[in-house]
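User: quick one
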Amino acid sequence: DTEVTQTPKHLVMGMTNKKSLKCEQHMGHRAMYWYKQKAKKPPELMFVYSYEKLSINESVPSRFSPECPNSSLLNLHLHALQPEDSALYLCASSRLGATGLDTEAFFGQGTRLTVV
Amino acid sequence: AQSVTQLDSHVSVSEGTPVLLRCNYSSSYSPSLFWYVQHPNKGLQLLLKYTSAATLVKGINGFEAEFKKSETSFHLTKPSAHMSDAAEYFCVVRATGRRALTFGSGTRLQVQP
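Assistant: Done. Structure below.
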């Protein structure tokens, strides 16, 4: 199984809503990532988890709250978002190599988020 | 600091003709380099990777790339384009010791019938 599964595929939420994006992988990868991709732009890194601990936060606003409950799951909790947060949110995972460094990343299909 | 520059934002080829997507990188140390493809409204799929083994790397769907340290390039090629190759292609670098991937701005490949 070389898949990273993201749910939901599409999400429309109001600015006062609370919602969560979910990501799951069963490849035994110990590094997991959230990326944000705006239309016609490359993905931008938001968060990195390694061994279920947050290791990188790219100065993401607190209305985005990541959570890694176990080695297979990664969540992104959303609250009080703005319309400009509308984007494709991509989850990825990678194996941590022998030196502790990441190998190639495997991406999910993404969640298309629209904030109204 | 590492960075990657994709020299063409848009490339158009005819079906059956060769594909060349150009990528130059900048990295302080020996980097790992990747090419990913993204079809419309889809996630990213790894095409191939270079991690300091052979300089000519073969990937999926007939794509290959050559790492040229002297030119700091990692161009993606395919001998014969297929309609299904139409997509966005990203050149990606990870510098040694760095956790995060750095993406190029992307090249949109259009394949004409």
